[in-house]
Amino acid sequence: MESRYKSYHGLADLYVYFVERGIGLLRSNGLLGYIVSSKFIRAGYGAPLRSVLSKTALREIIDYADLQVFEGATTYPVIIIAENCSCKNSVRYVKARPNDEPDPTALAARSHDVSMATLGPSPWTMVSSSGESVLAKIRENAVQLRDVCGPAQLGIKTSLNAAYVIDAHVARDLIEEDSRSKEVIKPYLRGRDVDRWHTQTNGQFLVCMREALNLNEYRAIAKHLRGFERELRDRYEVKRGDYDWWVIRQVADVTIFDGPKIVYPDLCPNPQFALNHDGSYPNNTVFCLRSDSYGVLGFLNSKLGWYWIIQHCPANRGGAYRLFNQYINAIPIRTDVTTHNRLASLVDNTVTLNKKLATEQLPNRREQLQREIDTTDRQIDQLVHQLYGLTDDEIRIVEEATA
Questions:
Q1: CA 358, CA 4: separation in Å to the nearest integer?
Q2: Number of C-alpha atoms within 13 angstroms, CB side, residue 178?
């Protein structure tokens, strides 16, 4: 395969080679059409195919995204139309919305031009020239998010929740039996507990027994875990000898969990970044950034920040996006935005308002708080747009894409 196909990649799906072969068989000015998975647009294995296609006269791409067109199967297909000629400087592209009709002719009617010059082996964003100008302004004078916060870290996969996830009563009993239990019992955070701007408690705790610890030094915890010893020893990693039977899993760095951090679910339909201060240990549906910056949080939750994310992260069912590490770590962010006092003040205000809303019971007061939140969030968006120098037309593009 590697010697025969320029699109070869060790992890590529077979359709990749059918696409390249089809292009190779085209006569002059011949047309090709395929319905294939959209994964090649952003996936690492798609880089060689993207390189091949960027040198081809692509005519049209219809991206069905989350719109399910094959009954009984969850798919994310695209229609690719290519032509064997050197006459095209742009490709028509449209991305279906969840409530669209699947008719490709109807979808194509609202497609936009994407410059072929913006396409290459890197993941494709498929935005119009106006949309590309917005992305260019985000990238201008910016550093990557990983350079500000360090790389995003996924939470802990226990591999046996029954043993390691406990309720408040069990946590209290273990601490009463042995005060050292408190050292390894941590508040537990799930993706569903992460709201925009703040996190909620769920009354659960995580027994975080790491490899670096000595089980014999935690008498009550040892007794608790021995009640699950058979199941714990039956885990694949334990059988393979990766670690002792009582170890939760190998965790790279728990210090990021202990301190203040920005957290977000791995799957989001809207921006759901929040600041967590209570030392919660997240599960593997939550990512963490080592930061307590209100400026960073404000940008990530802004419409402009979300615009960048939805142009790069893959779509999922229900209108959500997969916030994979490689895309979030690479978010461009300006250092003057991360330290902007006015932005930090607005974010501090909306965080406080959202926390009040989460506990308020009176309907009239809830409505008033929601109005104040909406006003403050609009002010955050307006300030971020101003800081990045967006024109009225560019603001309209962002507003429409993130509505």
A1: 59
A2: 16
C-alpha of 292 from chain center? 19
The radius of gyration of the chain from alpha carbons, rounded to an integer in Å, stands at 25
Question: What token pair was written down for 62?
Answer: 């219809």
| Beta-bridge mates of residue 34 | 80
One domain for residues 132 and 183: no
Structure tokens at 1: 């395969």
Q: State the distance between the two ends of the chain, measured CA to CA, in whole angstroms.
A: 44
89 DSSP assignment = S
AA identity, residue 112: H
Same domain, 161 and 137: no
For 16, the token pair is: 């990749």
- Does residue 228 form part of some domain? yes
User: What values do phi and psi take at 147, rounded to 5?
Assistant: -80, -15
Query: Which range marks the domain in which residue 299 is found?
Result: 127-150+290-403
Tell me the per-residue pLDDT of 78-113, one tens digit each, with 9 for 90 and over.
Answer: 999 998 887 778 999 999 987 888 899 999 999 999
Q: Is the same domain home to 255 and 318?
A: no
- Residue 143 has, within 13 A of its CA and on its CB side, a CA count of 12
Residue 398 CA neighbour count, 13 Å, CB half: 25
Task: Determine the 3-state secondary structure of 26 from DSSP.
Answer: coil
Helix axes 294-301, 341-359, angle to 10 degrees: 70
For residues 147 and 329, give the distance between their C-alpha atoms in angstroms, rounded to a whole number: 8
| pLDDT tens per residue across span 349-394 | 999 999 999 999 999 999 999 999 999 999 999 999 999 999 999 9
Q: Which residues of the chain have pLDDT under 70?
A: 252
